[in-house]
Amino acid sequence: MKANAKANATILLVDDEPNVTEALKRALWRQPYTFLTATSGTAAQQLLERQHVDVVVSDEQMPGMSGSEFLSWVRKQFPHTIRVILSGQASLEAALRAINEGEVHRFFLKPCNPTDLVITIEQALRLKRLEEQSRRLLREYQRQAAALKKLNDNSPDLLYLDTDANGAVIIDEFEADGTATDVLAEIELAMKGR
Q: 55 lies in which domain range?
């Protein structure tokens, strides 16, 4: 495991041949990542259950559990983890299985070009950040919409503004004590204080 002081992502490298994971780590050493390694799908599953991982790069041909089986499990258990597969054999069947079962982000043939792998991981991480931001914004929108609905359900006239053709708010002198004027004055003060 390599811990980078400025790590902005955690990458899990899974291959039954430790020299392959070491070669991948050497190819990616300049990147601001923390690297975790596992030599089997089962070991990688245990690691994922203990630690957050942003991207998994897995070999396809492994004893016990294939890379596509492992990445299918990752997709179900950790759907926001980006999945990349490496294969020493260009089998159409393996590629289709990885794409259909594991919904992999990218399929590489071994030996893969380190620059292509770096670019793929960077693009995957940008996509992941955009998806996280989108989910966060959606949650915020839903929270605000629920608060507005509750407010409107409790006080339906509170959110209603009568406007003229130019969009100016029309104030009805509906209360003798000047409540409407007081509320508008408070809103105006709050707007100036922004």
A: 9-128
Q: Which residues contact 72 (CB under 8 A, 6 or more apart)?
A: 101, 102
Q: Helix H segments across 8-66? A: 18-27, 41-50
Residues comprising the chain, all counted: 194
Distance CA 180, CA 175 (A): 7
Q: Which residue has the tokens 């759907």?
A: 79
Query: Could you tell me the pTM of the whole model?
Result: 0.66
pLDDT along the chain (194 residues), means of 10: 59 91 85 91 95 92 88 92 83 65 73 85 89 91 83 70 74 56 64 60
Same domain? For 88 and 37 the reply is yes
Tokens of 137: 């914004």
- Percent helix, percent strand, percent coil in the chain, to nearest 5: 50, 15, 35
Peptide bond just before 18 cis, omega within 30 deg: no
Claim to verify: residue 123 and residue 168 sit in the same structural domain: no
CATH number of the domain within which 63 lies: 3.40.50.2300
